[in-house]
Amino acid sequence: MKEKLQDRKPVAGIILGSGLGKLADEIENPLVIPYGEIPGFPVSTAIGHKGNFIVGLLSGKMVIAMQGRIHFYEGYGMSMATMPVRVMVLLGIKHLFVSNAAGGTNLDYHVGDLMIIRDHINLLPNPLIGPNLDEFGPRFPDMTRPYDPALIRMAEEIAAQKGIVLQKGVYVAISGPSYETPAEYRYFRSIGADAVGMSTTPEVIVARHSSIPVFGMSVITDVAHATDDEDYVTDGEAIVKAADAAADKMTTLIKEMLVRL
Amino acid sequence: MNPKIQKIKDIVEVLESRIGDFKPEIGIVLGSGLGSLADSIESPVVVPYKDLPGFPVSTAVGHKGNFIAGTLSGKRVLAMQGRIHFYEGYGMDMVVLPIRVMLMAGIKYLFVSNAAGGTNLGFHVGDLMIIKDHINLLPNPLIGPNIDEIGPRFPDMTRPYDPALIRLAESLADEMGIKLQKGVYVGGTGPSYETPAEYKYFRHIGGDAVGMSTIPEVIVARHAGVPVFGMSVITNEAHDDYAEDYVNDGQDVVEAANAAAAKMTALIGRMIEKL
Fold it and tell me: What is the ipTM of this complex?
């Protein structure tokens, strides 16, 4: 990676989840490195059509973006699912931005809402199980502040200035790949979750292992309250439309955050 | 013979070759920072885990890796100084192997201790908690073909922690002026500590304390019908709001556990005397 990057020194890592894909198009002078060209990485065909690191300038900052993440539900072990984050840590990132699409378990959430992740509940296997990598961090890393309070304040300030309405909540991560049943939605709500998804927390735990400040955001693409109705059907088109609109707002927000870092 | 049983037998044979004609009555698992109880064991014979065939070496902060055979309060005890944790990357078979060795060596009671984070908002660092029940969020150690020689396919878990031993602890603590909490222990994998949202979740489902061990050992002991007494030292407190300068590190945990160790050592010593 360092050979390919040469004098490009990324200061921020960005994991482009569902919804943030457009941000990749705004990276200037991009250097694209397919995962398939990196030794030990899963081949890109196994993780869908997108599997690239993109390194370039965004808001005047050198960033490294992951276009396509590696999910546990694809059958990869946790060390594989979090390897891209370890790589970004070794390349010297000072901040990590993570995004995802999530189901809203909070009854007040609507499709298209943007949620700042203020905390999480990890119901996936812990990525740090196994001998500790002392080069990265301690055996028992603290998780008191998985998401950086200063970055959260900055996002809220920018959102207020730009008239972007944000939710703020707790993300619960499960393995998937089957979606949640109505009973599971109720369970997650009852344990304190506002949104549910199949990624992100392993990446955050690994970044926090190395004390990298993290900012996380979910696009709410589905909501819990309708799923109990007998005639409930997921309106795919409406979801895509709402998610797209939300993604534009998230792109604006994250670009402005990068300016201020 | 079941290869798992053969493996345990091989270990017990080596262990017995070192401790001689010593039939332990009581097994004790010494958790984080509670190793000082080991110093109270008289005429100790120390057998390092590394001397036992197929035995893993414990890697956790503050953990040694030894069996100690000796006398405590006049009873023959076999203590584990340092346990095997799932977060170290070992499979559950390995995590519970020392317990199965103690069971085969003939223990009639198992005492387990650990350091745990208090999810109960009324708990404070340095509190001692009798484990009255648990919620297992770790993989179940009995998954796989059942070892019929040890216990049934579907072991009962109605009384994971022996009510008579709990009553004994409470009455002795009362006499000794030791204040005890009593609660439910949640076992997660770790090794990262809990987030505030996870603390709240564990509290919501009925957990009073959370840790990364103990339950697999208890399940395996109960599989064999051995009565268990469990105790947690509370080494961390839950807060609804964490101050910006709040820090949580392994060294604090070890120190808090050490401070409470004396009380627990005294209590367990008296309990063993009464058995």
Answer: 0.90
